[in-house]
Design goal:
mainly alpha; Chromosomal Replication Initiator Protein Dnaa, Chain: A; 2 domains
Length: about 190
């Protein structure tokens, strides 16, 4: 199967999102700040990050001509809305499932093939190289897990501390538990293989 360029992969994602959201592709890719176009771009950024190994800068340049900071904001915004709204989370899960069912099979899952798998193929039978590649990937996943877990703890902490219904003692107790979890996560982060 012919290799698909990063730009083409991202274009496929952008076309898919614009079709699903019934928004003209050109409008979604424009610099327009209308809410419906901005939300579609942010969803495309989120899906691109989830299903490709493209950098944030490449994703931004290919989808709407944005920089990496804007893409990071887009992903964070979509994740926050998913955290706060069950309806939106369900919509995103359905959209991702549709993408996995309709688009990925046509591409032979080539979008999910990343540097890790390419490196493993290129390592051949060299056990030291294979061990180093696996160790690097493990540490990368550990760092990602740490980042996601800390973000979740931060969101929970923010909602609890802003909750007027919780009593002072309960807030303090929950806050202490969250701080303990942060400490444990930091210990895990530095326990690399």
């Amino acid at each position: 199967m012919k290799k698909i360029s990063k730009e083409r992969r991202l274009e496929i994602i952008a076309v898919f999102v614009s079709d699903q959201m019934e928004i003209p592709f050109e409008k979604m890719m424009s610099k327009s700040r209308l809410r419906e176009y901005t939300e579609a771009r942010q969803i495309a950024h989120y899906i691109a990050k989830k299903y490709t190994n493209c950098s944030l800068a490449v994703i931004g340049a290919s989808i709407g001509g944005k920089n990496h900071a804007t893409v990071l904001h887009s992903i964070s915004n979509i994740e926050n809305i998913m955290f706060q709204s069950k309806t939106f989370r369900y919509t995103m899960e359905e959209l991702c499932k549709r993408f996995e069912d309709e688009i990925l099979p046509k591409l032979g899952n080539i979008m999910l093939k990343d540097k890790y798998h390419n490196d493993l193929e290129n390592a051949g039978d060299d056990e030291k190289k294979i061990t180093d590649i696996i160790r690097r990937e493990h540490n990368r996943h550990l760092a990602n897990y740490h980042f996601e877990a800390m973000k979740l703890i931060h969101n929970v902490e923010k909602h609890i501390l802003n909750d007027a219904v919780l009593e002072g003692f309960r807030k303090t107790h929950i806050h202490e538990m969250l701080m303990d979890q942060k400490k444990r996560l930091n210990e895990l982060k530095y326990a690399k293989v």
